[in-house]
Design a protein that fits this description.
Length: 446
Amino acid sequence: MKLRTRIQLSTTVVLIVLLIIANTSIYLIFQNRAITSEHNRLVNTSHNIIEELNTNKDASMQQVLEAYLISDGIIRTVDRKGHPIRQVTTDDDYLDIKSMYNDDQIEDVFSYEESMFVGVSIPTIDENGEVINLQIVENVDFLFDTIHELKWVLVFATIIVIIILFVTSGFLGRVISLPIQRLTQTMKTIEEEGSFEQITITNRTKDELTEMAMTFNRMISKLEESYTKQEQFVSDASHELKTPLTVIDSYVKLLKRWGKERPDVLEEAIESIGSEANRMKYLTEQLLQLAKSEEVIENEKEVMNIVPIVETTIQRLQQAFAHDIYIRNEQSSIQMKIHEQSFIQLLVILLDNAKKYSDNHITVELKDRKDSVNISVTDKGVGIPLEAQAHVFDRLYRVDKARSRKTGGSGLGLSIAIRIVEQHGGHITLESVEGKGSTFTIILPK
């Protein structure tokens, strides 16, 4: 069953049940109050008769009963055996209505010869001191006719409302299901054509269905962006791996031809093959680092002082680099929750990047802010062209491919750096002027 049909049927059924309950309640409450009102009126009349008998000793009971005779009914007194003593009526047929004696006050509703009656019976004492019942019975056909009319009015009103509800719930189901149908159709198109089609949003209201469509479109945009980057990454990675493989293959062929006869060719081939193999190994390790699970990083984080980690890393690299590395820091302790090995790798990547593109000194600055810690790495090198700054964090992107080949860069370092920063909940900024140098600033939340 379609969602639209389910919505239409479920809303209609629920509202029908509520209507039936409401109308039945109205009917029963009205009937009960109307009958209670008639009973109360007859009880008041009975009390008036009794009071009249007690206060007016000169009037006979027959006279009093005739004085209070109702418009359509009978008033009578009944002895203990249930026999009528005195009766006054507007219709002699009412004299045949059965009378009974009761020790308590009784209020009743009954039918007689296809008519409806209400009656009350109240114990009292007659002029002779005998305990009797004063009974008043009234024909209330008019009241039950009104109740009957109310019943049919409620039935017809319920039918009309049900028809309106069925039509409007169908319209409501269509309004609700239309965005879902569009979403389903878009998904089918994506499945069949492999495209990244988005939903056309015609209604810009802030309801949940519009929000769902907008969320789907954002998801598709991100998937398309990720897919494009993945394609570019696979293409670039294939190209990067193809180059050393081509070199190795060429030297293998060279060895087959001249390796045994010419030691210089053998030496050159072994050195080149080893170099390209190391390059492939380094590239593979970088790719594996990019694929490392974020859950693993998060589970291994610990709160520690990052100042000695930064200082130790700088001292270790300064011995390997032919550069002076200066550190600016006014704090002896900066406590942060980090993954130590990833944090060290982040520092190594930025310092190594600064070393490759600068022949001057490198400056590392630590700033302990209120809500974050800023770590800046500044070099006085060649800088990065403005048009290239938006792409330096892309995988396998290199500003100067010739220089990267010479310095041994893989184009993955900054991609790994920004991933590590994001795994720590931070972000990284770049300020660079071509010919003057670059500053990479890591901003990590506390």
